[in-house]
């Protein structure tokens, strides 16, 4: 009888030990995996299609956007047009849009550059609209506002 009681106590201890050792570990915030940071190639074909004008002018925007630094870099080359203002706007296709940034504005004294280059940092709202595909470029001339335009497209690098 004592042997039976002794074996029962050992089995009880082993069961309790087994239950205690199977305790689940709760994940902490440190264990969460961050989403990968992406770099995008940004392009835009800028022509009369976006404005329904009869302009012969064209332009191409090429650049990059880095989610980590929130920096967009761009280079715009144009032909058959003399821009007075080149600007980035946010809004749906075909709308007037909201000004995001003036990329180039002609002064009376200066020579019109062959290409416009630069970079700037985005705030969270600007980043969200850019990634949703809601940005476009407008090129204004002395004769027409806008004369040509084009939508920015992003491709993950």
Which short descriptors sum up this protein?
157 residues; alpha+beta; Immunoglobulin-like; 2 domains; five-stranded antiparallel β-sheet; four-stranded antiparallel β-sheet; 2 helices; 9 strands; 39% strand
SSE layout and pairing:
Blueprint: H1 2-21, E1 39-46, E2 58-66, E3 71-79, E4 85-90, E5 98-105, E6 115-121, H2 124-131, E7 135-140, E8 148-151, E9 153-156
Antiparallel strand pairs: 1-2, 1-9, 2-3, 3-6, 4-5, 4-7, 7-8
Notes on the protein architecture:
There is one protein chain. By secondary structure, the chain is of the alpha+beta class. The chain is rod-shaped, with a radius of gyration of 30 Å. The chain has helices at 2-21, 124-131, and strands spanning 39-46, 58-66, 71-79, 85-90, 98-105, 115-121, 135-140, 148-151, 153-156. The strands form two sheets. It has a five-stranded antiparallel beta sheet with strand order 6-3-2-1-9, with no helix packed on it. It folds into two domains: 2-31, no CATH class; 39-156, Superoxide dismutase, copper/zinc binding domain (Immunoglobulin-like, Sandwich), CATH 2.60.40.200.
């Amino acid at each position: 009888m004592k042997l039976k009681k002794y074996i029962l106590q050992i089995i009880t201890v082993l069961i309790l030990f087994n239950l205690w050792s199977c305790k689940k570990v709760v994940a902490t915030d440190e264990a969460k995996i961050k989403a990968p940071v992406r770099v995008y190639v940004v392009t835009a074909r800028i022509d009369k299609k976006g404005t329904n004008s009869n302009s012969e002018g064209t332009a191409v925007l090429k650049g990059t956007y880095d989610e980590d630094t929130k920096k967009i870099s761009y280079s715009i080359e144009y032909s058959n047009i003399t821009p007075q203002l080149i600007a980035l706007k946010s809004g749906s296709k075909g709308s007037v849009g909201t000004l995001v940034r003036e990329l180039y504005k002609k002064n009376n004294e200066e020579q019109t550059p062959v290409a416009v280059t630069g970079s700037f940092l985005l705030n969270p709202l600007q980043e969200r609209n850019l990634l949703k595909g809601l940005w476009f470029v407008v090129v204004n001339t002395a004769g027409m506002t806008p004369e040509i335009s084009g939508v920015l497209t992003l491709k993950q690098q």
